[in-house]
Amino acid sequence: MLLSSYGQIIRDKRKRGNITIGGLADLSGLTHPQISRIENKKSSLTLNSALRITRSLGMPLGLLLSEKTINDMPLYFQSGILKREFPEKYPTLNCNDLLPFDSFGLFSSGRAEMVIRALLEQFIAGILYKESEGNIESIARLLYNYLAGKKTPASLSLKLSPLLPNITEFRYPQDFSLENIRNNYLSGGTLIFLDIGAYIRQNRFSKNMSLQELGNAVGLSHQGIKLLELKTPKKIKLEDIFKLDIALGLDGELLDFSWKVAELYAGVHRMKTKLTGKLQIYQSYEIQGIEKLIVLSRLFQHYFPEDEGWLNWYREKSIDGFSDLNK
Questions:
Q1: Whether this model's pTM surpasses 0.70
Q2: Is the domain 6-65 a CATH 1.10.260.40 member?
Q3: Once rounded to an integer, what is the mean pLDDT over residues 303-327?
Q4: 163 phi and psi, to 5 degrees?
Q5: Residues of the chain with CATH 1.10.260.40
């Protein structure tokens, strides 16, 4: 999969560009020790670190791979010449939809929470019984806390249970279809790590593979596959992505899918990155807000697949930074 000399290749590319380890750390958002360990092969190359290093060095990913691996991944390495069917129209948030969070300072001001809460109210209004409409705002606050990982009081959980299709799955719809996941991907939608897990799970289901069978194929335990599917770790190894892609017969689509996820977390599409020429990595509180927003968009896509109202509302309000939410 990865060339055994990936650390040496990265070091040679860095030195040819007259870039110090500290300089690469500044460009990539990684630390000096992290880069040193990767170059000396004391650390595995993760999906995130591979994206940050190769992009900062202006280096194609293919330089780190064997010819066989490249040939096994045509949908990534030959995406420009291969024909694929793309959905005509699909309601999804893309990287441009996230720009107002930076330009209007929604993260730093705390207004990002107000945006998510307002969307939550719309989601709840769509599924609550009419007689419960008066509780929408309070339930939205409760579910925002749920998204944030805070405990839901038992009494309120019981109150909510008949109102939502499955409150325990509110964080991400576990039966989110493969078609929906690929529509987000093929439409240029923003993808998060939870999407990688869902994409792997639904592809495994489609091929009638058990957790153990997939685990055996890639050298992971069935528990490791289960964890990866339900809560994809942000430190997932790049080589594991390759192995999973090949085991599932995805021809490089998982790699391309995952690379787009890594681009989001590295801040590739941020205006700050484009202006400074170096990656402006999202801070943890910023990425947590984005993840909540994307999970919420998945719920709209899952429960209201034909509805574009939430997306139209979001884009209209984002023009002036959701200013009326302060009123």
A1: yes
A2: yes
A3: 90
A4: -90, -25
A5: 6-65
